[in-house]
Amino acid sequence: MTAPTTPHATGASARWLRRLLPHRNPSARLVCMPHAGGPASFYASWTDRLPEGTELIGVQYPGRHDRLAEPLMETVVEIADAVAPFLRPYADRPLFLFGHSMGSLVAYETAVRLEAGPGPGPAGLFVSGQYAPHRCAPPDEALDDATVEREARASGWTDPAVFDHPELRELVLPALLADVRASMTYHCADPVRLRAPIGAYGGRGDSEDVLAELTAWKQLTSGRAARRVFEGDHFYLRAQEAELVADIVARMSDWGQAPLGHH
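^ thats the sequence. predicted structure below, dont judge the formating
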């Protein structure tokens, strides 16, 4: 192992990348992309479940928490274009990407950019609760705020209290609607096939369409592919956190071709 080379996140990099579990000389890094309306801190509880030597980084999109005043981004591609350059310095060790719901699309597009170089691409991509990019169909109707809010309510992508609590609504709804619109308008007719292996996860009680489409993710890698379904709904990863993280860690160790430390 070479001398410690952990990048020092400053400025724009620090706004995007939150080192939830920092490590001076990590054996691997796991970067997590939140769901629509979600903050980087959604993954903070994972810190207690990762093995020694694994660094955990959460991505903070604009328009939430301490980035509340920043302009929102309108597309998945725009978000990936912004975050990928900041992740390149972190790929000096095996770098794994995880995304839930909209975050899966951001993670995939980020992986595409990292594999395009310069430098090493990701060692693996984990996706959760989301159609594969080439299976996402753009809507036929115009997406005004009322339409997007109806979809967000119906999909179970966020806590219903967000819509009914006036203070929460004012703070959270703009970012949530922007993210849901980005998810709903995303489509990739000719997706890049990654070299990185892909693991796809879902909750048994999620949309039947989402569950059925998880298998399609294997078409987007020339490497290994895995699929696992847990008990629970779209946010199964809350109740099944221990089992999900254990599965991710096992695949990180396998795909990274080096055993991770023990917690």
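The chain has a mean pLDDT of 89.
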